[in-house]
Amino acid sequence: MKEQWFKEQADQSGSLMRLGEDAKTTFWGYIGCEVVRAEKGKAVICLEVRPHHLNLFGLVHGGVIATLIDNAMGLVVVQSCPDEKTVTAQMNINYLKSESAGIITCEAELIHRANRTLTLQGSVFGDEGDLLAWGSGSFRRIK
């Protein structure tokens, strides 16, 4: 049993590493997202706040927060439906607190799966652990 678990973890780690490498040339890489942890139904990603992530007030732009939530939830969906194409169908975000520097982290998890849709939630935290934003979204499996 333990050997199978370790094999599954190694396989998942290897596929996540390949996925991470492939993503570097996409919007994911341009923004600067990094995988912290990924497991069945959950993922944690982060990014280091850079000047291009800020708005005119010197705060992390809401679009960066939205992207982080979308990417973290998307990573969970990719793990849940590895051989299928999926798209974000809907997303809702509540912005709770601002951040201007440091590393921001998003934790996402699958909360419901139906035949063609997956529903997830994601929370973004600042360097000090403050909840910056909370969001939910649904992803559609396309055929």
TrEMBL record:
InterPro entries noted in UniProt: Acyl-CoA_thioesterase_PaaI (IPR052723), HotDog_dom_sf (IPR029069), PAAI_dom (IPR003736), Thioestr_dom (IPR006683)
CDD domains recorded: PaaI_thioesterase
Pfam family, one: 4HBT
Keywords, in A-Z order: Hydrolase
Highest taxon in the source lineage: Bacteria
Domain Thioesterase per the UniProt entry, residue ranges: 57-132
PANTHER family: ACYL-COENZYME A THIOESTERASE PAAI (PTHR42856)
Listed name of the protein: PaaI family thioesterase
The organism of origin for this protein: Paenibacillus oenotherae
